[in-house]
Amino acid sequence: MPSLRRLCSLLLVVGFVLTGCSNHHVRNLASDASLITIGKSTRNDVLTYLGEPDAQRMASADTEQWVYFEEDKSIFQKAPIVGKQFSPNGYGMIVITYKGDLVTDCQYTSYDKDEFGWAGNYRWQEKKE
């Protein structure tokens, strides 16, 4: 009969293994953007690398754009049940432009949640006496 300590250790290991398992595609847009080659990659290549886009739009009659978006989740957001109460650390986005089946542009941008914190800071306008 195994000891209680050994049983707890086994359950802890099994818990870590199970929480690490996932059956959804994990994106890392910063590195995934580097897989796209402008003028060479096709729609099928992009679908293989990134999966289905989060949004699609027609930029003109012959130009289509696919948008991929992800949140940079904070450690608190990853917590079960209460995670939805916290905001992300930032956001990442890829916009891929097609003419026909060929990629003509691929742009990655990222935003930190504090990136625009300066917008409400008007201290620089204060007069020094």
Overview of the structural elements:
There is one protein chain. This protein is an alpha+beta fold and 129 residues long. The protein has helices at 4-20, 29-32, 43-50; strands spanning 55-60, 63-72, 90-99, 102-112. The protein has a domain at 25-112: Beta-lactamase Inhibitory Protein, Chain:B, domain 1. The protein contains 3 helices and 4 strands, in the order H-H-H-E-E-E-E. The chain has a 4-stranded antiparallel β-sheet, with no helix packed on it. The longest helix has 17 residues, at 4-20. The termini are far apart.
Q: What is the tally of beta strands?
A: 4
Distance linking N and C termini: 80 Å
Order of helices and strands: HHHEEEE
The CATH architecture of the domain at 25-112 can be given as: 2-Layer Sandwich
Q: Could you please say which CATH topology of the domain at 25-112 applies here?
A: Beta-lactamase Inhibitory Protein, Chain:B, domain 1
Report the sheet with the most strands, covering strand number, pairing sense and barrel closure.
4 strands, antiparallel
C-alpha Rg, in Å? 22 Å
Content-based structural category: alpha+beta
Query: What is the spatial order of strands in the main beta sheet?
Result: 1-2-3-4
**Poorly predicted parts:** 17-24
Total helices: the number is 3
CATH class of the domain at 25-112: Alpha Beta
Shape: flat
Give the amount of beta strand, in percent.
Answer: 25-35%
Helix content: 10-25%
Mean pLDDT: 76
